Amino acid sequence: MARVTQLGQVNQSLAALQASMTQSQRLQEQAASGKRINRASDDPTGASISMQLRNQQAANTQYARNADYANGQLSTLDGTLQTIYSRLNQVRSNIIAATTTTNGDSRSALSAQVEQIKGELQGLYNTQYQGRAIFGGTSVAGAVDSSGNYVGDGNPVTVQLNASSTVRVDVDGSTIGAGDFSGLLDEISAGIENGDAASSLDQLDSLISSVITANGQIGAIQNRVTTSQSAITAQNSDLTVSLAQNEDIDYAEVLTKFSSQQVAYQAALGVTARINQTSLLDFLQ
Questions:
Q1: What is the pLDDT of residue 283?
Q2: What per-residue confidence (pLDDT) applies to 123?
Q3: Is 34 left (phi over 0), alpha (psi -120 to 50) or beta?
Q4: d(CA 26, CA 29)
Q5: b/e code 111-147 from CB counts within 10 Å (16+ = b)
Q6: Neighbouring C-beta atoms of residue 222, cutoff 10 Å
Q7: Residues 31-54, buried b or exposed e (16+ Cβ, 10 A)?
Q8: What region holds the Flagellin N-terminal domain (predicted)?
Q9: CA distances from 174 to 34, 74, 212, 283 (A)
Q10: What's the CA gap between 80 and 86, in Å, rounded?
Q11: In the chain, which stretches have pLDDT less than 70?
Q12: Which of 7, 22, 70, 124 is 20 to 30 A from 225, comparing alpha carbons?
């Protein structure tokens, strides 16, 4: 049977005291931070899970920002398309009104109003959101020049809503008459004066129809963005709960363990003190 020396007992006691003190400090740190994992060594697997959860939260934060941007641009598109529709509809009303009057002054007034509407449409087609023309694609030149020509590039502006889904948040101006309205309204204005504006109705109706179609598509995309925002909000709530379950402590459990550890530490301290008091004379007795 191996003999246990006094020095060996002292070393064992000191090691046990050190371990007990370390455990007490860890429990004290957990109680102070409220976290079960304060460093990766506390729970390597749990720390890895926390990192994955936080990465997902960070990604969701960016997706939420993307969705906010998309919503802002889509709302601007929606409002602008409705205004364009309204102004084009006014032009149509002027054509109809011109067919029911032979008064030259009335025709001139209706024609002048169409010219004014053309100027309004020039501005509407060049509407911007955060410094970019909403009907000009990625072109820095805008959508329509001063002569009414389309100068956009038609490149889609897309926004990523989640890891696997993107949506287009602009409208190609060429599909809603950005390069055609100016010439058409010039013809209509002259036609009202001359009494033959009705011949432009089909072309105007086609333009109005394209605006209605684009507005409907924008509405559908905006619904999708709103749904995505709700999903991100719900997922973030779940991630917060998961993170808390993975990291947070049960205060009652930790405090109970800490009290028990303190009792054990004090007991070990007392025993070690008694061992250290043993002298050579005690062994000779």
A1: 52
A2: 95
A3: left
A4: 5
A5: bebbeebbeebbebbbbebeeebbbbbebeebbbeee
A6: 19
A7: eeeebbbbeeeebeeebebbeebe
A8: 12-138
A9: 59, 18, 14, 104
A10: 10
A11: 1-6, 275-285
A12: 124
